[in-house]
Amino acid sequence: MRASWLGICVVDPWLRDYVGHDFNYVSSISRAISSQGLELKVLAARDCIPSIRQILPVEPIFRRLPMEGSTWNNRVARAFAGYASLASNYARFSSDLAAADLGGVNAHWIMFLENAHQFNLLAWGRWVRRYHPGSAPAFVVMLRYSYFDVRLQRWRKSGHLVRLALRTLEKASLVHRVRLVADSQELANQYRSLTRLPVGLLPTPLTCDLPSQDRAPRSSPDGNLNVLLPGRPSFSKGIATFATAIERLANKRELSGLTFTLQDYQTFFREPELARAIAALRQLNLPGVHIVPKPLGEEDYNRMMSDADVVVLPYFQEDYCTMVSGPFVEALALGKPVVVTEGTWMSGQLARFGAGTTVRDRDADDLARAICAVRDNYRQLAELAAARSGSWIAYHNPRNFVNELLKVAEGS
């Protein structure tokens, strides 16, 4: 049955530049799709930058949403704007999706919504019904965000909207091929409590075009270990914890053998707490701290990851209890020792597939301790990380992702 598939249309309203992992994600699977002889369409943001349009077959259709405006710089304004703009976000996404040129997309295609927020789900459920069942593609929705409050053990308010959206998809599934998937088992289990639809599991494809050199432990040219916190800067990724840990190490004169790299650049959502943490780190004026001031294209980003000796991801436990981290997937694929927050999806995967250590949530002193521990045991940890990377890549790779996506679309 697989030979009957003609193409995959990837839908990502957030794909517009190199900020975050949106481009890396779509770019990863695009090559695997093409290598299997399938056509590819990409529906992306209307202001998608020209260089991405030269790489991917992008149809730029989605308008920038109201929630991406400057009012998000204030927490109270963000909360108000988030509720007030929900209807507007829904309407814009719906109308832009309806206006897309999907000529040729038929029952032999897969429509893959790879990054669904609650208003995307609401609109998707209604949009699916515009297709005649006999000519409709298979509709696959990736659920990558958690709306469950792990501290209070209850769904957040937005969870009720997700439940409503899933009910709409359930109705659509009576006559259409509607499939739900997640990229972590824990997240899939959460959504299974909200819907009668099966929730499948897909690997994370962010391991394509990683440097192919031997994954044996490397040594920095100056003999120092390069400790990296990669990716889009946000407060929930523990940048303030990282900055404070570096300050604690400096005060204790324990920076020997260490250098630090992190990314910092302007995004549509930049928390004041994040800005203060970066400013404090800059004021230390430490020679071994390198702040990358811009988002990086795929090649430069992969080089930055390759040049790291240790990848530190002190993400907030509350936000990343069940959510997948792209940089974590890449770090294990590269055979890098990692430091991650305990009680997260990352810590569970680390115990089986990687090497490194865990730290307490938002604890700068514990992070400083962990960084020193990895430095002092680096050779042993790096050898273990390199040895385990093969089994990790065997599952988390673009080709396996596409194969599993096709199986899901087939209902197998």
Write a compact overview of the structure shown.
The protein is α/β, with parallel strands linked by helices.
Topology of this structure?
Layout: E1 7-11, H1 22-35, E2 39-45, H2 50-55, E3 58-62, H3 75-84, H4 86-98, E4 109-113, H5 118-128, E5 138-143, E6 148-149, E7 154-155, H6 157-172, E8 178-182, H7 185-192, E9 199-201, E10 225-229, H8 239-251, E11 258-263, H9 272-284, E12 289-292, H10 298-307, E13 310-313, H11 317-320, H12 326-333, E14 338-341, H13 345-353, E15 356-359, H14 364-376, H15 378-395, H16 398-410
Parallel strand pairs: 1-2, 1-4, 2-3, 4-5, 5-8, 8-9, 10-11, 10-13, 11-12, 13-14, 14-15
Antiparallel strand pairs: 6-7
Helix pairs in contact: 1-16, 4-5, 5-6, 8-9, 8-14
Written overview of the protein:
The protein has 412 residues and is of the alpha/beta class. It folds into two domains: 2-208 and 397-410, Rossmann fold; 225-395, Glycogen Phosphorylase B (Rossmann fold, 3-Layer(aba) Sandwich), CATH 3.40.50.2000. Helix content is 43%, strand content 16%. It contains 16 helices and 15 strands. The chain has helices spanning 22-35, 50-55, 75-84, 86-98, 118-128, 157-172, 185-192, 239-251, 272-284, 298-307, 317-320, 326-333, 345-353, 364-376, 378-395, 398-410; strands spanning 7-11, 39-45, 58-62, 109-113, 138-143, 148-149, 154-155, 178-182, 199-201, 225-229, 258-263, 289-292, 310-313, 338-341, 356-359. It has a seven-stranded parallel beta sheet with strand order 3-2-1-4-5-8-9, sandwiched between helices. Strands 12-11-10-13-14-15 form a six-stranded parallel beta sheet, sandwiched between helices. Strands 6-7 form a two-stranded antiparallel sheet. Strand 8, helix 7 (185-192) and strand 9 (199-201) form a beta-alpha-beta unit. The radius of gyration is 21 Å and the shape is globular.
